[in-house]
TrEMBL record:
Assembly with partners or alone: Interacts with ribosomal protein uL14 (rplN).
InterPro entries: Iojap/RsfS/C7orf30, NT_sf
Biological-process GO terms, alphabetical: cytosolic ribosome assembly; negative regulation of ribosome biogenesis; negative regulation of translation
Family, per entry: Belongs to the Iojap/RsfS family.
GO molecular-function terms, A-Z: ribosomal large subunit binding
Known role: Functions as a ribosomal silencing factor. Interacts with ribosomal protein uL14 (rplN), blocking formation of intersubunit bridge B8. Prevents association of the 30S and 50S ribosomal subunits and the formation of functional ribosomes, thus repressing translation.
Name the UniProt record assigns to this protein: Ribosomal silencing factor RsfS
Keywords: Cytoplasm, Repressor, Translation regulation
Alphabetized HAMAP family for the sequence: Iojap_RsfS
Organism the protein comes from: Candidatus Kinetoplastidibacterium desouzai TCC079E
Cellular component aspect of the GO annotation: cytoplasm
Length: 112
C-alpha cells in the first residue's frame, strides 16, 4: 500500500469517526496532475465542518513526508477545503454540496 492510499484511509477514518456524512472518494489521477484524489463529505453544521477540517489537517503530522498546503473556507465553514497535497478534502454543508455537485463534474470528466 502506498503513502497516498494510507493517507486516504486515515482521512476517511477521521471523517467517519467525526460523523461526516455521505463520504465519497473520486480518483482524479487520470484527470489532473495536481492531485490524485478528491474526498467529499457533508457536515451537519458550520461547527461540525470546522471541527472535521481541523482534525483532517492535524493528520499531516503523521505524514511529514507529504507537504500539506492549507485550509480554505474555515471562517464561514459552509464549504471547507483541506489541501493535503495528493488529496483534496471537501467538507460541505448539504445545500452547498447539492448546489455545486462537484462529484458529478469530476465523475463525468466535465473538468476544464
Amino acid at each position: 500500500m502506498n503513502i497516498i492510499n494510507i493517507l486516504e484511509n486515515k482521512i476517511i477514518k477521521t471523517l467517519d469517526d467525526s460523523k461526516a456524512q455521505n463520504i465519497k472518494t473520486i480518483n482524479t489521477s487520470g484527470l489532473t496532475a495536481i492531485f490524485d484524489k478528491i474526498i467529499i463529505s457533508t457536515a451537519t453544521s458550520t461547527t461540525h465542518a470546522r471541527s472535521i477540517a481541523q482534525k483532517i489537517f492535524k493528520i499531516r503530522k503523521d505524514f511529514a513526508s507529504i507537504p500539506s498546503r492549507n485550509i480554505e473556507g474555515i471562517s464561514n465553514a459552509e464549504w471547507v477545503i483541506v489541501d493535503m497535497n495528493y488529496i483534496i478534502v471537501h467538507i460541505m454543508q448539504k445545500d452547498i454540496r447539492d448546489f455545486y455537485d462537484i462529484e458529478n463534474i469530476w465523475e463525468n470528466n466535465d473538468v476544464l
